[in-house]
Amino acid sequence: MRIAIPLYPGFTALDAVGPYTVLAFAPGVTVTFVAGERGPVVDDQDSLSITATAAYDELPDPDVVLVPGGPGTVGALGDHRLIEWIRAAHRTTRWTTSVCSGAFLLAHAGVLDGLPATTHWGFHDQLAAFGAVPAAGRVVTEGKVVTAAGVSAGLDMALTLLALLRDEDTARAVQLAIEYDPAPPFSSGSAATASPELRERALSLIRGV
Asked: In which element (H, E) is residue 42 found?
C-alpha cells in the first residue's frame, strides 16, 4: 500500500505529519513525501522542513493521495505540476484525501466536482466556488474521496482511512499506540461555539496579520 503526501512551500506541518504518523504505523503501508523535485520543503512557519524523497514523476500512481493544507495552498493552486499530478493520480487511486485547505487543491484538480467535502471552518463556504458541496463534519467521505476539516482533523481522517484500508481493529490499535485520546484544556476548538472575537483572532493567526 503506497501512500503519497505531496508537499509545497507553506504547507501546515501537522496536516502532513499527523496523518503520516498514523498511517506509517500500519503494517504493509509505505508513506512517501513527494514534491516537484526531491529535497526539503519548508512549512508555513518558515522554520520546519520535510524532505520529499520522491518527485511526482517517480510516484505517478500511488494507492492513496493525501494532500495537506496550509497558507501555501493559495500559491500551490498555480502549481500546474502538482495539480496535474493530483488529477492523474486520482484516476487510479483507491483513495484520494485531503486535510484542511488541501481540499481546494483537490477541487482545483477536478476531484471534488459536485461532491460533498469539508475543509477548515474559516474557508468552508468557499468550497462551493470550486465546484464542491460544502458539508459539515470533521471527516467527510464520498466514494473514494475523503476530506478532513482543519489541521487536527487530519488525525481523525487518517484513522478513518486506516480502518478502510485495513480494518477497524488495526485503526483502533494505532489510535492507542499514539495515545490519541483528546482532552483539550479549553472548549474553544469549534467555530460553532466560539465567540466572533475568538474566531477573528484565530483567523488572524492563520493569515499572519
From this structure: strand 39-42
